[in-house]
Amino acid sequence: MTGCIAASVMGLRMGVPRWLRSSLIVVLGVMLGSSFTPDIFGRVAQWSLTLAGLAGYVLLAGGATYLYLRRVAGYGPITSFFTAMPGGLNEMVLVGGAMGGDPRLIALTHGARIMLVVFLLVFGFRIFGGYHPTGEVGGGTSILTQPPLEMAILVACGTVGALIAVALRWPSAPLLGAMMLSGIIHLLGITEGRPPFELVAIAQIAMGSAVGSRFAGVKVSTIAMTTVHALAATVIMLAAAVGCAWALHAATGLPVPSLLLAYAPGGLAEMSLVALALGADAAFVATHHICRILMVVSVAPPFFRRVGGGRKLPSERPAEDD
Question: What is the pTM of this model?
Answer without folding.
Answer: 0.81
